[in-house]
Design a protein that fits this description.
Strand order of the largest sheet: 1-3-2-9-8-7
Number of helices: 8
Structural class: alpha+beta
Distance between the termini: 40 Å
CATH class: Alpha Beta
Low-confidence stretches: none
Length: 283
């Protein structure tokens, strides 16, 4: 695979965005309407942080489809399940019994680490990785071998291209069943972490709640860790449908503010691609 390919203007634009960035950036995007692709260090093996939770969700729906998992089953959350980082279940008293579907929703929209750990235990790490190989993802690997503060590559790794191609399968009903893909898109559409890819897009996640029309849909999953940021998304608009994966690491900014430089960089890359491939929305 080449290190960079696609529209020279877009590649030059990314060069400009990374000129003052001390770390490394990888990007993969595909315009599902035209077939055009953009790759910028898209085949570099990079940490995924919580974007790997999309793969865990996909395996959940595969197992639900063959009848080995019941999405309506309730599972007790014990104190032994508590884990730091993102999420809400760690803040609640033990004894709550969410459904498997609830755990998936929390894993995606709040990046809940307790819900994620419970699902990985239920599904099996090896089985998740085997399905990834079966789907053609040879690099993406759920390692699940780190404590908070440790090496984020021991959590999971992938490439921007493989992360983007997984989102393409979900966007196009390219695997599992159309019903499963639709349900996964619904989880992604409910995302509450919008500080990366969606941050500069003309997107209002609350439009439907207040009775407004929303021509733009963003279905995404972020990943955050010290000095690295990742986001993967399906973006749809009238006449446009695209997937985007953007990952950066090595930033000296180890903070977790909304404007952490990795968040800002991923948002600006998304805006660059959006302006080139979508460009406008009806008033």
């Amino acid at each position: 695979m080449t290190d960079r390919s696609g529209d020279p203007a877009l590649l030059a634009g990314i060069d400009d965005l990374t000129a003052s960035f001390a770390g490394e950036l990888g990007v993969y995007a595909k315009n599902l309407t035209t077939g055009e692709e953009l790759a910028y260090r898209a085949d570099e093996v990079m940490p995924t942080a919580s974007t790997i939770k999309v793969a865990i969700m996909a395996e959940l729906y595969r197992q639900a489809g063959v009848g080995t998992i019941d999405l309506g089953r309730r599972i007790r959350v014990d104190a032994s399940d508590w884990y730091g980082g993102t999420g809400v279940l760690k803040e609640l008293m033990p004894g709550l019994e969410p459904t498997v579907h609830d755990l998936c929703r929390l894993m995606i929209i709040q990046s809940d680490n307790v819900a994620t750990g419970m699902l990985v235990r239920l599904l099996g790490k090896e089985r998740i990785n085997q399905s990834l190989r079966d789907w053609g993802f040879d690099v993406t690997d759920v390692r699940w071998n780190m404590a908070l503060g440790g090496d984020i590559r021991q959590y999971a790794v992938s490439t921007p291209r493989e992360l983007g191609q997984l989102m393409e399968l979900i966007a196009t009903d390219g695997f599992l069943t159309p019903k499963a893909c639709a349900e996964m898109r619904t989880h992604l559409r409910k995302q509450q972490h919008l500080e990366q890819i969606p941050r500069e897009l003309p997107y209002n996640p609350y439009a439907a709640d207040v009775g407004e029309e929303q021509p733009l849909n963003v279905m995404n999953k972020i990943g955050n860790y010290m000095g690295m940021r990742a986001d993967v998304a399906i973006v749809t608009a009238p006449g446009a449908n695209l997937v985007l994966a953007t990952v950066n690491e090595g930033s000296p900014d180890h903070g977790f503010s909304v404007d952490q430089e990795g968040n800002v960089l991923n948002g600006r890359v998304a805006k660059l691609v959006f302006d080139a491939w979508v460009g406008w929305l009806p008033e």
